[in-house]
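Translate sequence into structure tokens.
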Amino acid sequence: MNKIKFISSILFLFAIIIYAGEKDYLAFAEKMPEIKGGLKALYSKVEYPAQAKSKNVQGKVYVLIYISETGKVDNVKVVKGIGSGCDEAAINAIKKCEFNPGVLKGKPVKVKMALAIKFKLIN
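Result follows.
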């Protein structure tokens, strides 16, 4: 069952990237943007909202990130959220990250990419 959920998540993210607006941003590049420090750096910036903790809200927030040719986050849109402050926490964490820009034909380019940020309470 976990394999099916994983494949469904990947297909969902793929569809988001392809059909999202902002035509100036590529859906794919030879080298996709990368968070400096990796996902560990991103998750270190995520602050679990008190409201979500008190309500035991857990799940994934799916976002679409627009990254400039300099690696700056131009915009973040929540595609599928879980509420209770988690959507905003995901956006804030991403905006605090630095990215290595996407590259196409040896040149930095604007790229849109989808990402799922997992919120899970640890007892």
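Note: The first strand starts at residue 34 and ends at 35.
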